[in-house]
């Protein structure tokens, strides 16, 4: 039952912090505590230093830093803000720098113990930018790379311009990949090891009109190297599809080549509901499953103890196969409307979901052995439309 309180036989009290951003302008820290199988969320810190429209949080856990992208929904520019993470879960603001509009995601790259930078994907501004990290949360602009469309697109409403939606590293840390929802591409970049300036290589061309949004890599034997088997799973928002590619490393840092091995809707064997718009995709920490969030078709009605009903979108789980294909596993309610993003904790037993339209976060149980997502353990309102939720671990 949705309303049941789960008892997991846990007696010790444990606490983990979560950082949550929302379009209303705040970043909040929530403390999740578990005591005798009962979970509780408490809001322990809030800041508006990434206002007006925080869209994404990139955590640098080794250095205790948090980078926040302000999308700037109604301003000319967006911005990049940095914070130090304090042991009590609060954030100390370091810097807010004006940027090309619409940053929605960011990834840190470079030498792990040397010079590093953060690359941002700009949705509205049709660009990728790079910022050199100078320690202690200080940073400076390194490069602006704007893009234009080369011709007409199948979906002029959503594909009026290039729309960079995410920036991720390949498993070896040599390349940055940027799904472009407007141009139906996954752009690939390498960089100069001295300057960390990005250089665009040959992209992956996704299906016309599919609208690539987010992607995740997988090494079936959990070994990341140029010579290991590597797959990439691309979620396209407009086609509501998940496409798997076998990835080959070209010699001498020359880029990546992709060969499609699987494609289906994000509903797997089930009928795809009208209006579905998938958002986030991740490989689970146990390295055996792929989880995708489905937004905009609230297919589940969840009864509440007071007789009311929660309309809920869903999470899809697929089993990862050694040949890169996917086997349908589970469709499960995410616990609210419009799960823009979710994060799984490092044990794989808790899924934190951010619901953009319900302005809340929901923690779901997950059975690591079976890969099945389960009951909600805790739920909390946030002050604005939820955009990103990250575990501090
Ligand atoms: C722990 O939870 C169980 C099941 O709800 C309950 O029977 C027990 O009394 C609880 N123990 C404590 C110490 O609260
Ligand atoms: C950060 O910079 C952006 C872009 O200049 C600006 O719109 C925003 O108000 C700034 N945010 C804060 C909290 O100072
Ligand atoms: C949390 O830690 C920061 C930095 O040490 C400090 O400034 C702040 O007062 C602390 N907050 C609370 C509630 O203790
Ligand atoms: C702010 O936006 C304007 C208009 O798009 C752009 O020309 C300018 O470069 C942006 N400023 C920064 C610092 O990126
Ligand atoms: C990958 O294989 C090539 C050719 O056998 C070899 O030169 C290279 O060192 C290998 N790379 C790694 C990281 O093992
Ligand atoms: C994958 O499937 C989706 C949904 O059926 C379809 O729209 C898309 O064109 C397919 N993509 C490829 C690359 O075959
Ligand atoms: C959800 O999908 C079903 C089945 O395709 C459709 O009948 C319904 O209108 C859709 N609802 C919304 C809100 O798009
Ligand atoms: C949500 O679904 C409705 C009804 O099917 C559709 O008109 C709308 O474009 C969808 N929104 C998104 C963001 O996909
Ligand atoms: C915020 O959520 C409301 C529904 O609660 C929705 O109508 C609105 O479009 C959302 N705005 C943004 C910017 O997410």
UniProtKB/TrEMBL annotation:
First and last residue of the signal peptide: 1-15
Source species: Recurvomyces mirabilis
PANTHER family, per database record: 6-PHOSPHOGLUCONOLACTONASE, 6-PHOSPHOGLUCONOLACTONASE-RELATED
Stored SUPFAM superfamilies: Nitrous oxide reductase, N-terminal domain (SSF50974)
Matching InterPro entries: Cycloisomerase_2 (IPR050282), Lactonase_7-beta_prop (IPR019405), N2O_reductase_N (IPR011045), WD40/YVTN_repeat-like_dom_sf (IPR015943)
Protein name: 6-phosphogluconolactonase
Molecular-function GO term, any one: 6-phosphogluconolactonase activity
Keywords on record: Signal
The UniProt record lists the keyword Signal: yes
Family to which the UniProt record says this protein belongs: Belongs to the cycloisomerase 2 family.
Presence of keyword DNA damage: no
């Amino acid at each position: 039952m949705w309303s049941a309180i789960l008892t997991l036989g846990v007696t010790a009290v444990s606490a983990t912090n979560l950082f949550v951003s929302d379009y209303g302008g705040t970043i909040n820290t929530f403390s999740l505590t578990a005591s005798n199988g009962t979970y509780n969320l408490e809001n322990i810190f809030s800041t508006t230093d990434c206002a007006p429209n925080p869209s994404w949080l990139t955590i640098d856990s080794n250095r205790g830093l948090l980078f926040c992208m302000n999308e700037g929904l109604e301003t000319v520019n967006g911005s990049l803000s940095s914070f130090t993470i304090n042991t009590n879960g609060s954030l100390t603001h370091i810097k807010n720098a004006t940027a090309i509009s619409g940053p929605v995601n960011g990834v840190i790259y470079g030498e792990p113990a040397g010079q590093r930078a953060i690359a941002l994907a700009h949705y509205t501004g049709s660009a990728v930018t790079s910022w050199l990290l100078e320690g202690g949360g200080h940073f400076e602009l390194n490069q602006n790379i704007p893009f234009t469309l080369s011709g007409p697109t199948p979906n002029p409403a959503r594909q009026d311009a290039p729309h960079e939606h995410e920036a991720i590293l390949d498993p070896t840390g040599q390349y940055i990949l940027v799904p472009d929802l407007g141009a139906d591409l996954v752009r690939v970049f390498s960089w100069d090891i001295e300057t960390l300036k990005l250089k665009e290589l040959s992209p992956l061309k996704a299906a016309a009109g599919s609208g690539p949004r987010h992607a995740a890599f997988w090494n079936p034997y959990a070994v990341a190297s140029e010579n290991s088997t590597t797959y990439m799973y691309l979620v396209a928002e407009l086609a509501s599809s998940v496409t798997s590619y076998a990835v080959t490393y070209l010699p001498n840092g020359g880029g990546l080549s992709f060969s499609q091995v699987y494609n289906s809707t994000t509903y797997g064997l089930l009928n795809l509901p009208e209006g579905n718009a998938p958002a986030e995709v991740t490989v689970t920490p146990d390295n055996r499953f792929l989880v995708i969030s489905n937004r905009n078709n609230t297919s589940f009605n969840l009864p509440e103890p007071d007789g009311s009903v929660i309309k809920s979108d869903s999470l899809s789980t697929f089993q990862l196969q050694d040949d890169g294909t996917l086997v349908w596993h589970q469709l499960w309610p995410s616990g609210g409307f419009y799960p823009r993003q979710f994060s799984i904790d490092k044990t794989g037993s808790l899924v934190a979901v951010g619901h953009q339209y319900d302005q809340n976060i929901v923690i779901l149980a997950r059975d690591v052995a079976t890969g099945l997502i389960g009951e909600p353990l805790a739920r909390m309102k946030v002050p604005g439309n939820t955009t990103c939720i990250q575990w501090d671990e």
